[in-house]
Specification:
The structure is a homodimer of 210-residue chains. By secondary structure, the first copy, chain A, is of the alpha/beta class. Chain A has 10 helices and 6 strands. The first copy, chain A, binds a DNA duplex (30 and 30 nucleotides) through α7 and α9.
DNA sequence: TTTAGAAAGTGACTAAAGTCATAGCTCTGT
DNA sequence: ACAGAGCTATGACTTTAGTCACTTTCTAAA
């Protein structure tokens, strides 16, 4: 039997979800809470396996509650209940240890599936949320490995520029004269069609050279 | 009834998985393939709802096959079958449209749950994979919203520096004199404890101001 | 062997960036 | 009404950065 805590401020939604999941005899809502603080208090006094947590709640919201619960009771699974427009918070919730994202509007079977999958160690993200969240996570990973036409020395200097070093510091680091560093940088700027070291530093970071 | 294509080069694993999922009467393996190319060919001639796709296969691997299939038949769901050490490819597969990640070593119920969840529009990632993949996705997103102690004008100038603009260009953009821009930048550098505009540009990028 | 590119250097020069002192203007809050 | 913060501006100054021309050395390819 899976003991569920239902944290959701709207009593109507709470009743609806409760009815939906208790049609499955393995699932039992053993506690309810109207905000994050109540949720934490419930967990302190009851044995809970899984929390269905609304994101938006008055007082302490679902994100803070998730963070606290996962810190104190890492074994408790947390599924976020979200609406279409909550994907702003989705990434944060994942960081805080949530095991999935369910839409409040989902039909019963989706909800049940997600709960079982979660209890079995899975992570379920309903399609409508995943469609918004996953691209957001991926966009920061899409750096294509462009081959940068620089010699090893030029690359080394570019990296140091990307760390904010001055010519003097670069010269010292690489045991060169300042003049040589300048010459190299002139070369680099020409090759990459950039104007100055600031643009070069930006280039270096955007191409993951630092 | 869910029509499944099983793409997996090891015949033994294929048999095992087939037996596991066909214990559920709603699931039927209607086709098998030993590499990505065969998988695509099977889909051309058969009606398929879902593909269980191994990542590592001889010839065309699971990633390429996923990309091709999702492009030509976007409605077909694809679950990746992975081992512990494949998380390198996980991010790529997600980009290509995979609906989840299952471990080959998972017990039967997890597999079944994932298939149903997937067909219902969910995205299931088994815990062992999620534990490795999600942090990787999040690491590029972890910029905590540090409150940057800059006035609106200073912020605007910082952004432009982060775009690689010169003082003259910044002055023109904001309708200021070059001297004013310099003054602001001196202020900014002091506040942020930086040395020059290059370090400021780096700061701007790393704090997502550009 | 000649040639070409990468690497390192010097010197002289220009342009850009950054510092400092000082000052006027407008708003906001007490 | 007054102080403080923010924005603007000048002028004088120093320091860095960037360009250009020209030289040397080494190595690997034609």
């Amino acid at each position: 039997m899976i003991r569920i805590l239902l944290a959701e401020d709207q009593a109507l939604v709470r009743q609806g979800v409760k009815m939906m999941i208790e049609q499955d005899e393995q699932l039992k809502v053993v506690a309810e809470a109207a905000n994050g603080l109540e949720a934490v208090q419930q967990i302190e006094t009851r044995l809970i396996d899984l929390v269905l947590m609304d994101i938006r709640m008055p007082g302490m919201n679902g994100l803070e509650a998730t963070k606290i619960i996962k810190k104190r009771w890492p074994h408790i699974k947390i599924l976020m209940l979200t609406t279409f427009n909550d994907d702003e918070y989705a990434v944060q919730a994942l960081k805080d240890g949530a095991s999935g994202f369910l839409l409040k509007t989902a039909e019963r079977q989706k909800l049940i599936d997600a709960i079982y999958s979660c209890m079995n160690g899975g992570m379920t993200i309903h399609e409508e949320v995943a469609a918004k969240v996953v691209p957001r996570l991926l966009e920061h990973t899409k750096r294509e490995p462009v081959t940068i036409p620089l010699t090893p020395r030029e690359l080394a200097i570019t990296q140091l520029v990307g760390e904010g070093k001055t010519n003097k510091e670069i010269a010292e680091t690489l045991h060169l004269s300042v003049g040589t560093v300048k010459n190299h940088i002139t070369q680099i700027l020409q090759k990459l069609e950039l104007r100055d070291r600031t643009q070069l530093a930006i280039y270096a970071i955007k191409h993951d050279l630092v």
